[in-house]
């Protein structure tokens, strides 16, 4: 938190307010030297929901709501109890319990078909242009996210974007899920940079808050236009797509 107080970043509470520059950076042409990405500013998860609706017509949305909730509850509970399991296992277990809770018959084939969807995902339509522009400007980029390396690498490969990001920083490396500080520390260790030189791009308000509390300038890619969570800290920038993130990062 002390690091954050020293960073004279301009908070952006409204969509479209996407710039903040630390002192002394204007001459470099970059606000930040690197970006640590959560998975879902880049990965488009909508096909998972579409498959759930295909398998359970009229009930897919209810399943997805329960599944997402338990998925993240399980990551936090496992971190607190020091009983780590990787995100693939957590996601599968959350699916099984959520199907029972919503009264749906989840056969092994249906379970596997839903899980396979995560390995068939691609990136959001606005991602390629943004990543290529950032790469051309010399910004280093890597995932810093809960999913396994396989789950993070597959959407880039499926979209023909291999090589644009550095090796993914899956929480498997530290066996602690975000917002545990051990997870965010991976960015400092991998990039070899200071906290205020790394922008953290989140897909959820709680993750942006966790990254900022750790000391990263944070940007929330708020595609669903949700309200900011009341967690005592707010993102330094908010936008509804990758183009807004590019404006935040580049002078």
Structural key phrases:
alpha/beta, globular
Which helices and strands appear, and what pairs or packs with what?
Blueprint: H1 2-6, E1 34-37, H2 46-55, H3 60-81, H4 87-101, H5 108-116, H6 127-136, E2 140-145, H7 149-158, E3 169-170, H8 181-191, E4 198-202, H9 205-214, E5 218-221, E6 237-239, H10 242-249
Parallel strand pairs: 1-2, 1-4, 2-3, 4-5, 5-6
Helix pairs in contact: 2-3, 2-5, 3-4, 6-10
Characterize the largest beta sheet: strand count, sense, and whether it forms a barrel. Answer: 6 strands, parallel
Poorly predicted tracts of residues: 1-29
Strand content: 5-15%
In which range does the helix fraction lie? Answer: 40-55%
Care to count the β-strands? 6
Mean pLDDT: 90
Ends distance:
25 Å
Strand order of the largest sheet: 3-2-1-4-5-6
Derived structural class: alpha/beta
Which geometry do the CA atoms define? Answer: globular
- Please report the number of helical segments: 10
Q: What value does the Rg take, in angstroms?
A: 18 Å
Order of helices and strands: HEHHHHHEHEHEHEEH
């Amino acid at each position: 938190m002390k690091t954050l107080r020293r960073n004279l970043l301009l908070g952006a509470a409204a969509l479209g307010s996407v710039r903040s520059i630390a002192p002394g950076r204007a001459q470099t042409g970059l606000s930040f030297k690197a970006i640590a990405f959560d998975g879902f500013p880049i990965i488009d998860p909508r096909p998972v929901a579409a498959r759930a609706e295909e398998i359970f017509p009229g009930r897919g949305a209810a399943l997805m709501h329960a599944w997402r909730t338990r998925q993240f509850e399980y990551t936090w509970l496992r971190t607190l109890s020091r009983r780590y399991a990787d995100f693939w296992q957590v996601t599968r277990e959350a699916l099984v319990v959520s199907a029972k809770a919503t009264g749906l018959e989840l056969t092994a084939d249906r379970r596997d078909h839903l899980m396979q969807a995560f390995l068939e995902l691609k990136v959001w339509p606005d991602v390629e242009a943004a990543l290529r522009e950032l790469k051309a400007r010399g910004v280093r980029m890597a995932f810093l996210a809960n999913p396994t390396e396989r789950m993070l690498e597959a959407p880039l490969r499926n979209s023909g974007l291999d090589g644009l990001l550095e090796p993914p920083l899956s929480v498997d490396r530290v066996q602690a899920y975000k917002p545990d500080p051990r997870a965010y520390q991976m960015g400092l260790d991998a990039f070899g940079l200071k906290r205020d030189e790394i922008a953290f791009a989140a897909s959820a308000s709680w993750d942006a808050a966790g990254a900022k509390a750790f000391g990263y300038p944070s940007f929330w890619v708020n595609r669903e236009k949700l309200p900011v969570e009341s967690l005592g800290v707010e993102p330094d920038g908010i936008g509804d797509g990758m183009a807004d993130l590019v404006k935040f990062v580049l002078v």
